[in-house]
């Protein structure tokens, strides 16, 4: 569907919803790169091909400048990470520069806190803009001069219609626009009115400045787009200095030009804005004309990547904030335990395409799992504890058993884990009446306590009132110290444990996907976020029994809890001696299993 109006709001309105665009599909890695111009060199994507061709042609004096241009009206999400990785990596590859520019042209939605948060996120991701930190608001005087030049050359006029009239008279895809009765004001009158708009003489909505292009244009964005609006809201950087603010389309390309950006890389929805982007550069005949190149934005299954919707999640209290560990924001992912390396690897894997698609969230999860598997120390902790008493182990005694820090990384060494008569094991590692092929604890069954020994369960003690199992009575084989079977007898189950006397109590938060559906913004779900949320996206467990070595864990530390998943000490709620842990991700893709099961059930239902 075509929607008109970059001037309806401050930002360009999406012309085509990428989720419903022709060709939208569940693409994964690099499917589209191969479409045209198969690279015959060392380029990774079509943008590199364009840059290399420009370099060969001697354009831009051989110096490449890109930019990452966030609007500081929210926190960055994983989609922005794709744009950040792309822009900074291109600059690095071609010995150029990537600027960080805040496109802060809308005082009503922007905030300094977001500016700081964005800088923190870009640095965390591993990129540095050096001293090239810019703000569109820093160009307000230059942009104002550009606007005056447009008036002077007969390319802009002050329109005194209301915004509603302007919208109505712009027409639509099927209906040509109607020229404003103010369109032919003289240059002198336009200059006078615009000067007085700038001086704050008029109320909001009294006048706007518009480019004089073509109200009959088939390209609706070219039907005299707005350049300036009156806004009496103080700006987070310029305060009350400016009562008028430039529109995004006007400010963006000219800011690129001022910064001598060579390749202005943006997402596909800006393709329709390119003629207007170029119109400003040509009409003002600026000395530096950047080239706008569009690429496919990142869309992820079971996720929303739109600041507007993320903001709703925050404001409607579905999450605790922008940095809630379930959010796809970089601050949320960081708090959840994601690593910048994994996010960069993910962006590299998905590549840069020219057609929109959807990437499976499982691919991101796989990437973080891979990185954490290679780098996380292993510890044993018990989340839902059940007491296990080894009756034939001496009271008051402690043994120490040696565990590898990370079996994937022998250089990481080993650590010692205390063992004593009373342990905790995971409640769901015991079943009184197990099915076939149950190799874990049940009366009469011998299992291995990881790295420690073999124990046989003798009896399960129940609460006389509730019938709940409260304790397991076991015996160990002292000859199995270290966990090896002393006579080669087969023990198939291995479980983790902690020593009750040494473990400490802590809160652990089990995070899962925030959305229960594949495409939360699909029309069929209406606009109701609550109806598409996964009700089990957070389970808070208290009284977990954690390994004593974790007591002094620094916030942000990432670990694997053996058999349970990857966890990270929360950076906000942990206090010295009292870490709180967030589950980053389980050890396996449980959603794939659920999906498989569902599809099997469906198939069975059809038969
Ligand atoms: P949102 O769509 O979440 O509201 P936005 O486009 O309004 O984001 P900006 O602050 O304008 O947010 O984004 C800065 C840059 O990041 C832009 O160049 C934009 O094209 C890019 N970007 C935003 N979302 C994505 C995405 N999902 N995938 C790739 N790049 C993105
Ligand atoms: Mg944008």
Integer count of domains: 3
The kinds of small molecule bound in this structure are: adenosine-5'-triphosphate, magnesium ion
Give the strand order, joined by hyphens, for the main sheet. Answer: 18-15-16-17-11-14-19
CATH superfamily of the largest domain: HUPs
Query: How many runs of DSSP E, i.e. beta strands?
Result: 24
Question: Architecture of the largest domain, CATH level 2?
Answer: 3-Layer(aba) Sandwich
Largest sheet: 7 strands, mixed
Strand content: 15-25%
Q: What is the count of helical runs?
A: 13
Overall 3D shape: elongated
Class of secondary structure makeup: alpha/beta
Average pLDDT confidence is 91
- How much helix is in the residues? 25-40%
In whole angstroms, the N-to-C terminal distance is 39 Å
Please mark out the parts with pLDDT under 50 across 5 or more consecutive residues, or reply none: 1-40
CATH class of the largest domain: Alpha Beta
Q: What is CATH's topology name of the largest domain?
A: Rossmann fold
Radius of gyration over C-alpha positions, nearest whole angstrom: 30 Å
């Amino acid at each position: 569907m075509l929607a008109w109006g970059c001037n309806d709001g401050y930002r360009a309105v999406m012309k085509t919803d990428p989720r419903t665009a022709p060709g939208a599909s569940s693409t994964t890695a690099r499917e589209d790169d191969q479409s045209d111009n198969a690279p015959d060199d060392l380029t990774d994507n079509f943008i590199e091909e364009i840059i290399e061709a420009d370099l060969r042609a001697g354009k831009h004096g051989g110096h490449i400048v890109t930019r990452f241009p966030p609007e500081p009206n929210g926190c960055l999400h994983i989609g922005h990470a794709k744009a950040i990785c792309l822009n900074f990596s291109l600059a690095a590859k071609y010995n150029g520069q990537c600027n960080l520019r805040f496109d802060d042209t809308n005082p009503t939605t922007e905030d300094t806190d977001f500016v700081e948060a964005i800088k923190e996120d870009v640095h965390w991701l591993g990129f540095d803009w050096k001293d090239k930190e810019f703000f569109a608001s820093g160009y307000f005087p230059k942009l104002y001069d550009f606007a005056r030049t447009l008036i002077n050359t007969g390319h802009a006029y002050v329109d005194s219609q209301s915004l509603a009239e302007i919208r109505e008279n712009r027409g639509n895809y099927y209906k040509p626009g109607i020229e404003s009765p103010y369109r032919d004001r003289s240059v002198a009158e336009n200059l006078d009115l615009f000067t007085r708009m700038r001086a704050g003489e008029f109320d909001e909505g009294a006048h706007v400045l518009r480019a004089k292009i073509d109200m009959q244009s088939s390209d609706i964005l070219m039907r005299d787009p707005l350049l300036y609006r009156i806004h009496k809201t103080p700006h987070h950087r310029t305060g009350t200095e400016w009562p008028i603010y430039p529109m995004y389309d006007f400010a963006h390309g000219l800011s690129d030009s001022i910064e001598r950006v060579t390749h202005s890389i943006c997402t596909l929805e800006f393709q329709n804005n390119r003629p207007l982007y170029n119109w400003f550069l040509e009409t003002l005949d600026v000395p530096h004309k950047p080239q706008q190149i569009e690429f496919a934005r990142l869309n992820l299954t079971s996720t929303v990547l739109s600041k507007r919707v993320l903001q709703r999640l925050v404001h409607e209290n579905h999450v605790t904030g922008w940095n809630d560990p379930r959010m796809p924001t970089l601050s949320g992912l960081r708090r959840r335990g994601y690593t910048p390396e994994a996010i960069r690897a993910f962006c590299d894997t998905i590549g840069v395409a020219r057609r929109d698609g959807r990437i499976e969230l499982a691919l991101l999860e796989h990437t973080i799992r891979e990185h954490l598997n290679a780098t996380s120390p292993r510890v044993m902790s018990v989340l839902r504890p059940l007491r296990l008493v080894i009756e034939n182990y001496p009271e008051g005694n402690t043994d120490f058993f040696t565990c590898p820090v990370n079996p994937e990384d022998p250089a990481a060494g080993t650590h010692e884990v205390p063992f004593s008569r009373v342990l905790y094991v995971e409640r769901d590692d015991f079943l009184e009446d197990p099915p076939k092929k149950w190799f874990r604890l049940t009366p009469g069954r011998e299992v291995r306590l990881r790295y420690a020994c073999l124990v046989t369960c003798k009896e399960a003690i129940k609460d006389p009132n509730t019938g709940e199992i409260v304790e397991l009575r076991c015996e160990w084989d002292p000859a199995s110290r270290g966990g090896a079977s002393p006579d080669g007898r087969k023990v198939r189950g291995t479980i983790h444990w902690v020593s009750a006397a040494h473990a400490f109590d802590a809160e652990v938060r089990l995070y899962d996907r925030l959305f229960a559906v594949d495409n939360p913004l699909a029309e069929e779900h209406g606009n109701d976020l609550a109806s598409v949320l996964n009700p089990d996206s957070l389970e808070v467990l208290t009284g977990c029994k954690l390994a004593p070595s974790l007591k002094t864990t620094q916030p942000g530390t990432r670990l694997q809890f053996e058999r349970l998943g990857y966890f990270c000490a929360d950076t906000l709620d942990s206090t010295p001696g009292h870490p709180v842990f967030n589950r980053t991700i389980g050890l396996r893709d449980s959603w794939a299993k659920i999906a498989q099961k569902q599809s099997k059930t469906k198939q069975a239902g059809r038969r």
